[in-house]
Amino acid sequence: MTTDHATGDPAELQREIERLRAQLAATTEEAERYRKAAYALLRERVPYTSPTEAELKDMLDGPRGRPFGELLDELERGGGS
Hints:
Layout: H1 10-45, H2 53-61, H3 68-77
């Protein structure tokens, strides 16, 4: 529907608002169904496992075993890796 809403009839504008609200509700509901299905599929394909101690250390230490804070300090000083 293409209507010039600036000069439109108030009743027509109200109907358009209601149509858009219904469309938004339907789209939101559909998106939620897809989100749930995607997460269910992800859990089925890649079940969550807790990180190992070595993985946690890697995450905390950053690349090449250097602490993340040290890398940030180096970047702030303008140095490269």
